[in-house]
Amino acid sequence: MENSKLFELMEKMYGEMQAMSARLESEIHEIKANMATKQDIARLEDKMDDNDKALYDGYTQTYEGICEVRENLEILTDRVENQEIKLQILKAVK
Question: How high is the pLDDT of residue 80?
């Protein structure tokens, strides 16, 4: 094979290798970007789970507080009714 043909073949192979190298670098960069995005999504999901737990705990505490207030209201209502009955009895005795 002649030197010029061999040189042309080597130049062609070198050009193809450079193009292949550029494509590989581009694909690696894209894969890294996708991995970073997936890690960000996983981080957000973890944060959302924590927020959901905190919101649920707050809801539970609010619900329990409302139930306690209702119970106290019922007790106070009963006391007021008893006081009204006692007042009516006292007024009737006079």
Answer: 96
Triad 15, 21, 24: Cα angle to 5°: 145
Instruction: Quote the pLDDT of residue 26.
Output: 93
Alpha-carbon distance 2 to 6, whole Å? 6
Per-residue pLDDT reduced to its tens digit, 53-93: 888 888 999 999 999 999 999 999 999 999 999 999 888 88
Domain that holds residue 2: 1-35
CA torsion through residues 69, 74, 79, 83, sign: positive
Q: Which pair of tokens denotes residue 56?
A: 């649920």
DSSP reduced 3-state for 25 = helix
φ/ψ bin of 2: left (φ > 0), alpha (ψ from -120 to 50), beta (otherwise): beta
> Which residue type, as a one-letter code, is found at position 86?
K
Residue 15 in domain: yes
Two tokens, residue 18: 């450079």
